[in-house]
């Protein structure tokens, strides 16, 4: 688990294909690795990765096909800056909100404008995530815990103060950028709870007679 309070900005130093997925080397900058052991979790742009090698100035981690398919990790290249946070401990201050490091979807920055000393961003989320995004609620963008200031359909707005711009990679954001989104865990659990006994029922496969007929597999 994480808090969404970014501890350091790191740099992707290598992305090496390995057996069908990717091994990544992250240089961790000012992030203190003194208490990090092999097998520990570190969030990279909000994606929970496991340290498999610790060469000293950073760590190597394996990125699965599932992660590449479901996050904006696929767009990263050597030299790109990334947000870093170590997993929280029982004595950590929960300055943001509870973050799992499991990305729910990829959003897109659609607008950026100055707002006094802050910067206003508008981000479009995937349609299926819109129901979890609430005015003044919490959302994680590339691992950063943020407060939603406005919602319009699947788009939401964020007001980012100078400190956050300086301590995260959000200063790099421009329209068209893909970002990792994780919605509030409480909203996910509440949705499941509201299903009641229906939660125990298996989901429909989606392979209906109508679908088969439409695609020519059933004939009258």
Structure, described:
With 220 residues, this protein is mostly beta strands. It folds into two domains: 8-86, Beta Barrel (Elongation Factor Tu (Ef-tu), domain 3); 105-196, Elongation Factor Tu (Ef-tu), domain 3. It has helices at 65-70, 162-167, 185-194, 209-214; strands spanning 8-18, 21-27, 41-44, 47-53, 58-63, 81-86, 105-115, 118-124, 138-141, 144-147, 150-152, 155-160, 178-183. The protein has a seven-stranded antiparallel beta sheet. Strands 1-2-5-4-3-6 form a six-stranded antiparallel barrel. It is globular, with a radius of gyration of 19 Å. The model has no long low-confidence stretch (mean pLDDT 89).
Radius of gyration: 19 Å
Quaternary form: single chain
Q: Which fold does the CATH topology of the largest domain refer to?
A: Elongation Factor Tu (Ef-tu), domain 3
- pLDDT < 50 stretches: none
Span between N and C termini? 54 Å
Q: What is the number of domains?
A: 2
Topology of helices and strands:
Blueprint lengths: L7 E11 L2 E7 L13 E4 L2 E7 L4 E6 L1 H6 L10 E6 L18 E11 L2 E7 L13 E4 L2 E4 L2 E3 L2 E6 L1 H6 L10 E6 L1 H10 L14 H6 L6
Antiparallel strand pairs: 1-2, 1-6, 2-5, 3-4, 3-6, 4-5, 7-8, 7-13, 8-12, 9-10, 9-13, 11-12
Enzyme class: transferase
Keywords: Repeat, Riboflavin biosynthesis, Transferase
GO molecular function: riboflavin synthase activity
List keywords for this structure.
single chain; 220 residues; mainly beta; Elongation Factor Tu (Ef-tu), domain 3; seven-stranded antiparallel sheet; six-stranded antiparallel barrel; 4 helices; 37% strand
């Amino acid at each position: 688990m994480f808090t969404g309070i970014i501890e350091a900005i790191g740099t992707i130093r290598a992305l090496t294909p390995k057996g069908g997925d990717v091994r990544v080397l992250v240089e961790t900058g000012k992030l203190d690795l003194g208490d990090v052991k092999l097998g520990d979790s570190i969030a990279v742009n909000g994606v929970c990765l496991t340290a498999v090698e610790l060469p000293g100035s950073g760590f190597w981690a394996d990125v699965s096909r599932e992660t590449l398919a479901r996050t904006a990790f696929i767009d990263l290249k050597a030299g790109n800056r990334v947000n870093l946070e170590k997993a929280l401990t029982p004595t950590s201050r929960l300055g943001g909100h509870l973050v799992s490091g499991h990305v729910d979807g990829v959003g897109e920055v659609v607008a950026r404008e100055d707002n006094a000393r802050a910067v206003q961003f508008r981000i479009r989320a995937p349609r299926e995530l819109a129901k979890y995004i609430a005015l003044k609620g919490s959302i994680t963008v590339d691992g950063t815990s943020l407060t939603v200031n406005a919602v319009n359909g699947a788009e939401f707005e964020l007001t980012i103060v100078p400190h956050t711009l300086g301590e995260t990679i959000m200063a790099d954001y421009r329209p068209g950028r893909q970002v990792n989104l994780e919605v509030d865990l409480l909203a996910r659990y509440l949705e499941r709870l509201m299903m009641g006994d229906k939660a125990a029922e298996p989901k429909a496969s989606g392979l209906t007679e109508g679908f088969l007929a439409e695609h020519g597999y059933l004939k009258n």
